[in-house]
Amino acid sequence: MAELQEVQITEEKPLLPGQTPEAAKTHSVETPYGSVTFTVYGTPKPKRPAIFTYHDVGLNYKSCFQPLFQFGDMQEIIQNFVRVHVDAPGMEEGAPVFPLGYQYPSLDQLADMIPCILQYLNFSTIIGVGVGAGAYILSRYALNHPDTVEGLVLINIDPNAKGWMDWAAHKLTGLTSSIPEMILGHLFSQEELSGNSELIQKYRNIITHAPNLENIELYWNSYNNRRDLNFERGGEITLKCPVMLVVGDQAPHEDAVVECNSKLDPTQTSFLKMADSGGQPQLTQPGKLTEAFKYFLQGMGYMASSCMTRLSRSRTASLTSAASIDGNRSRSRTLSQSSESGTLSSGPPGHTMEVSC
């Protein structure tokens, strides 16, 4: 397997000195819709699901998730779960370009590949973590196989098919913008693209000079041809597991995620809107997302004895200090402070909750 490529991204707490990336095993399995490649980290834990990730368009599992899963505070989580990172067909490193006329799988068909992966690994349940197109794919899989999905973390999900106005805008944009620029506009906010930070330059270079750009375009087209998931609050078509929806406060998909939140079961759904995270919170705010993910797992009954992260420790100290000054502050004030800091309850989800952090 090719060596890991280091992505230079500023993080609040990178791997501790002396820590090295985990050993990975990469596999490919044939499915009714072609071959799919996935990478497994760790060993299965008894009575625990696998953390199962699926990346967005223009990325692969490394460029989408590596900054998050190599973050220092994430190490406690990954020590407790085996991880499976899926690369959409043709997106893995070194993938050959598909021949002219190749029919790329639809997003529904990509979701139908997942049972082949789980059967190959002999895994019975997963906790899915998906971004963009990957979030849609995992949601479609969860609708078809609810008994195998214990929880979902969906970043930047857009569950809706494109309408006529969307199609017209997409076609018009295609006349004036290149495929890489359209994909960058899907991944990042206009403010981020205008700022042209080191992160944006890095990912613009990754996508523009990708040797498999033709494959990326096929994945992009499948995403734009997705069907409506038809979520309906109180209806038959809904996600039946705990769900954490995540979006940046200036992300291109903010409205779509808000709408998705309104359609899901409020007793099973938490909504995390992250400040200062742009379009890809798993890249720009890995610390805050790690903390939220840990609370999400605790709410599902895992890692009950988990240590607090550095962020939550500092917040706890701050709130304790404030309480000693004014012991009569109301419970609502405390909950407000908790929401502003991005803390998610570790108890069972009782209602849909919007959190800005």
From TrEMBL:
Pfam family, one: Ndr
Keywords, in A-Z order: Cytoplasm, Developmental protein, Differentiation, Neurogenesis, Wnt signaling pathway
Principal localisation: other
Region listing for Disordered, in residue ranges: 1-28, 320-357
Gene Ontology BP, a term: nervous system development
InterPro entries: AB_hydrolase_fold, NDRG
Chloroplast is among the record's keywords: no
Record's compositionally biased regions (Low complexity): 333-347
Cell location: Cell projection, Growth cone; Cytoplasm
A cellular component annotation (GO) from this entry: growth cone
Family named by the database record: Belongs to the NDRG family.
Protein name: Protein NDRG2
Higher taxonomy: Eukaryota, Metazoa, Chordata, Craniata, Vertebrata
